[in-house]
Design a protein that fits this description.
Helix content: 25-40%
Mean pLDDT: 89
Distance between the termini: 82 Å
Number of helices: 35
Structural class: alpha/beta
Number of strands: 35
Radius of gyration: 37 Å
Oligomer: single chain
Largest sheet: 12 strands, mixed
Shape: globular
């Protein structure tokens, strides 16, 4: 006689639950008879045999019994449970339409008996509206490969339950206990992880209960029997049924005896049982004479015995002699149709409960993250930035990621204090509502500094730590050029900083280096192509571009794109005509009209103009060119404006690097370098997660210069932040320099590209900077500040107010409320603050708040945070400054007049010719990215205040087709800064004893 496992034994994990666990090996036909029998919809939970009723097969869920004896139909109870679960799933979908309870069933090998059980579970899941996926692995799967699969499923938010189908049909030895323990306790819907088992053993029912014992308990409760005080006997001690069954009965206050193969006088113990649960895997072992009259009998066994009357030659029986139990017991479960359907129902119930927990977390997260801010230890006087930063121990970034709703598979750790965030989070949260969108800009900068980054950080600290709002700061990555040149750091200041500041300012996760590498790879390919075209015939060039490899020639995909652009539909390299070969192979780049330069993330003035090709090997093919700083590369602008990998690839492909001798643009795709650049940039498109001094999240990404490019952090970082913060949260992002440059480009370039609607502008100003705009004395680096900046001077301050008022006016033109943040300094007076506040509000600012975040962190910006919250509650009336369909010159005029206050613009002949060319070549509808000094509303950095009706001279213009804008240049704009006489290099050092970086500030 062969022992047959019950579905309760194979589901959750399919191990036999008898005293001597046996292997399961039965025919598909027989197993189908076991588990796929359609339930009788009219069958009640309990059935009672009428007096004199003829005995029928127990396979029909009834048998000979005394009047009053009842059959516990697991089929009917399971049906009721499935109907309830169907409603539960519908409610989850009503609350969160994108959340579908998901079950992953992992199988190694392809045993047909296991396949039948898996199909049964999938069918049950589909009936209640769940998603179930059969993850089938080959028999060659190793233990490590199986564990890796389980790990992946643990991290996949689509699955709320994971089961591993047993037995494991693998050619390699696999520790089944290790595998079940690898399933996350939060997804262990089998209840077999040691943590969940331990919870049950200690009476903690907060985890997942094992399915078969839980189903048995449900059936026992349905009888109306009082469990508390009853004497229960459990026959079998397997970890799947016997042991947890005893624990559940014990914590329901029954007195429990567990029997097993070594138990003596088993029949005498059974005779005392009010509740009898049998899970031994021995057919009809328990006889009716052993059973206490009126006992509840739960038969978990399922065994096949020979029966020549059956077509299959076998029939199913339980561990209890069914016909003998019926006249004695008060309730008994049939086989099949008793415990088996309940096991599957409990598996579905556990999975739905797991999804409900996720739903509750998501709904609660909609209001507030479970984020624990880091306390600040404020001291006076305020220490140096580096001292403050080092006095605070950051939280582990993996903890921060979890606090804000990221899952492990979406986070790539770079040590313990920074991590890359995968773009997959946007796919997971694509249907979630966005957070409120706030941009921080400033007045016209002065050497005194306005503290824009510091204000942004302080505001986010206040929103998160003090206003209990989900809030994320989105900042640009600092360039090493200014860090080693004049800034010495750009992580904020005082008690409103990003930490660790050394990581923030130096290298971070290598994005700028990736941009540098991609930019220079393109430059190298450009010059190499000029050289090869100048030294080879058409045919030789073609044969090298499309070489024969093992007698076969084919076009690379990027070459096929070039053929299509040329209107050549042929795919066979041998089929091209000589004219087609010439057109394909020759880009005919005009060496005097190359617009692409190499870059370096260093302030190196001697690279502003260089001559290349001086080596004799280059055959006198020399040309003048230059280096720019890495963050001014068009690739950096693309990194900041791309909405995803595909968008970035398309933008890179469209970059115009030169013009040919007919004036036609030559692109990166023409040079065949798009794919290679993407490989270098594939990780750079992911923003970096860091934190403020108070442990609130910061996304650091990209770093385009604001006076050359558009000066904003990335669309990707903002998008991820808005999804994570949720509709009641806030994303505070930056716009470089003043409203005339950074904010204007944020609205007209970045928001146009992203489609996002901003809710408020925070405009940062200081009393000291306004005094300088009012005509205050020139500030010299390293020299003490003059008396005018250190003491109250209302007259000088009032003269500088027009600059602030112009920036307020600029913000209001976009239909967005403007909150003025007065970044307080210790030398300011209350009268000065009040003068600024009144003037700002009279000019239309939504509010004007004095903020002391530098000295007090988030606490010092709490009032500013409240003003931002109130401003964001107003309906957005956002509008762009111009339409892209306008002619290029008209767009330039609109910006110059509306944002700067200019009266006229002047375009030289070179600029007019370029505008004509760009328009002819199809670039006329691109937005405008004005390049001008940040130190003045005019093109002259020495002009302060808010002049009007001046003439703005446009002396050059260039095209950034990939980034998607045209760059008019006002005055002398250098793309390569130089080092001052005494750069910050003198101060930056590594302490070889402690390993700490010194000199950043």
């Amino acid at each position: 006689m062969q022992c047959q496992a019950h579905p309760s034994a194979l589901s959750p994990i399919g191990t036999l639950v008898d005293i001597g666990t046996a292997a399961l090996d039965t025919s598909r036909k027989f197993v189908n008879e076991l588990v796929l029998r359609p339930p009788d919809a009219a069958e009640p939970v309990f059935r009672t045999k009428a007096p004199g009723e003829r005995d029928i097969s127990n396979n029909n869920h009834c048998g000979t019994m005394l009047s009053g004896a009842k059959i516990l139909s697991g089929t009917d109870v399971a049906k009721e449970i499935r109907e309830r679960l169907k409603k539960d799933v519908a409610e989850i979908r009503r609350q969160i339409p994108t959340l579908v309870p998901g079950l992953a069933i992992v199988q190694v090998g392809g045993r047909e008996d296991s396949n039948v059980y898996i199909r049964m579970k999938i069918k049950a899941a589909e009936e209640i509206g769940m998603y179930a996926e059969h993850v089938q692995l080959p028999r060659s799967t190793t233990q490590d490969e199986l564990l890796a699969t389980v790990k992946r499923l643990n991290e996949d938010p689509c699955f709320h339950g994971i089961i591993v189908q047993m037995p494991l049909d693998s050619e390699s030895p696999i520790d089944a206990h290790l595998v079940t323990d690898a399933v996350s306790p939060e997804k262990d819907v089998d209840g077999l992880n040691t943590i969940n088992e331990g919870r049950v053993a200690t009476g903690d029912m907060s985890g997942f209960l094992p399915c078969t014992p839980n189903g048995c308990m449900e059936l026992i409760k349905r009888t109306g029997t009082t469990i508390a005080g009853s004497y229960a006997v459990v026959i079998g001690r397997s970890k799947i049924v016997g042991t947890p069954m005893a624990e559940l009965l014990k914590w329901a206050d029954a007195t429990v005896t567990v029997c097993h193969s070594k138990t003596k006088n088993l029949n005498l113990l059974i005779k005392k049982a009010d509740i009898l649960v049998v899970a031994v895997g021995r057919p009809e072992m328990v006889r009716g004479a052993w059973i206490k009259p009126g006992a509840v009998v739960i038969d978990c066994g399922i065994n096949s015995i020979p029966d020549p009357t059956k077509k299959s030659g076998q029939r199913l029986v339980g561990d209890v002699k069914y016909e003998e139990a019926l006249p004695v017991a008060s309730h008994v479960t049939p086989v099949p149709g008793g415990v088996g359907p309940m096991t599957v129902a409990m598996l579905m119930q556990n999975t739905v409960q797991s999804a409900q927990r996720v739903a509750r977390r998501l709904i609660e997260m909609e209001f507030r993250w479970c984020l624990k801010p880091l306390p600040l230890k404020l001291t006076e006087p305020v220490p140096s930035d580096i001292e403050i930063a080092r006095a605070q121990e950051p939280k582990d970034v993996s903890v921060l990621a979890q606090e804000i709703g990221l899952i492990p598979s979406e986070v790539s750790l770079y040590g313990t204090k920074k991590a890359k965030v995968s773009l997959k989070v946007m796919e997971r949260l694509q249907y979630e509502d966005d957070a409120k969108y706030v941009v921080v800009a400033g007045i016209t900068p002065t050497p005194l500094g306005e503290g824009k980054s510091t204000t942004l950080v302080g505001l986010v600290q206040a929103l998160t730590a003090y206003k209990r709002c989900n809030s994320i700061a989105c900042l640009r990555q600092p360039s090493q050029g200014p860090t080693f040149g004049i800034k010495g750091g750009a992580a904020g200041g005082g008690y409103s900083q990003v930490i660790p500041m050394e990581d923030f300012n130096l290298h971070l996760t290598g994005d700028i280096h990736a941009v540098t590498a991609a930019n220079n790879l393109l430059a190298a390919q450009l010059d190499a192509r000029i050289f090869h075209e100048a030294t080879q015939t058409d045919q030789a060039l073609y044969e090298r571009l499309v070489p024969a490899i093992k007698g076969s020639r084919k076009f690379a995909p990027i070459q096929q794109r070039r053929l299509k652009r040329l209107g050549i539909e042929k795919t066979d390299p041998y089929a091209l005509t000589p004219d087609e070969i010439r057109r394909f192979a020759r880009l005919n780049i005009d060496p005097h009209n190359v617009v692409w330069t190499r870059v370096l993330d260093v302030n190196d003035r001697y690279l502003r103009k260089i001559t290349i090709g001086l080596s004799p090997t280059e055959k006198n093919l020399t040309r003048d060119t230059s280096f720019a700083i890495s963050v001014s590369s068009e690739i950096m602008a693309i990194l900041a404006l791309a909405t995803g990998l595909d968008d970035m690839k398309q933008r890179l492909a469209k970059m115009v690097v030169a013009f040919d001798k007919t004036g036609a643009p030559v692109t990166a795709d023409d040079l065949g370098v798009t794919g290679s650049m993407m490989v270098l940039l594939k990780d750079a498109i992911e923003p970096t997660l860091m934190q403020t001094l108070e442990g609130t999240p910061v996304l650091v990404h990209a770093g385009p210069f604001a006076n050359i490019a558009h000066g904003c952090s990335s669309i990707v970082a903002d998008d991820i932040g808005m999804k994570l913060a949720g509709k009641r949260g806030y994303v505070v992002t930056e716009a470089g320099f003043g409203s005339d440059i950074g904010m204007e480009k944020f609205f007209n370039i970045k928001c146009r590209a992203s489609g996002k609607v901003p809710n408020a502008v925070v405009l940062v100003t200081t009393v000291r900077a306004l005094k300088m705009h009012g005509g205050g004395p020139i500030v010299t680096a390293g020299a003490p500040l003059r008396r005018e900046y250190m003491s109250e001077n209302l007259d000088l301050l009032e003269k500088g107010l027009p600059n602030l008022l112009k920036h307020i006016e600029n913000g209001l033109k976009y239909g967005v409320p403007v909150v003025v943040a007065i970044n307080a300094h210790g030398t300011d007076t209350a009268a000065e603050h009040e003068l600024v506040r009144k003037a700002a509000k009279a000019a239309g600012a939504f509010d004007a708040i004095v903020s002391n975040h530098w000295a007090k962190g988030g606490e010092g910006a709490a009032e500013l945070a409240q003003a931002v919250i109130d401003a964001c509650d107003r309906p957005s009336e956002f509008k762009l400054l111009y339409e892209v369909d306008m002619p290029i010159e008209d767009k330039i005029i609109r910006i110059a007049k509306e944002m700067y206050g200019a009266g006229t613009i002047e375009l030289n002949a070179k600029v007019r010719d370029a505008i004509r060319l760009y328009t002819e070549k199809g670039f006329g509808k691109l937005p405008i990215c004005m390049a001008k000094t940040s130190m003045s509303l005019t093109g002259d950095p020495s002009v302060k205040g808010a002049p009007k009706d001046f003439k703005l001279v446009i002396n050059d213009i260039c095209l950034s087709a990939g980034a998607g804008f045209i760059v008019p240049m006002c005055g002398e704009i250098s793309k390569m800064p130089g080092l001052p006489t005494r750069p910050s290099i003198f101060d930056i050092d590594l302490n070889t004893e402690t390993g700490e970086i010194e000199g950043l500030f």
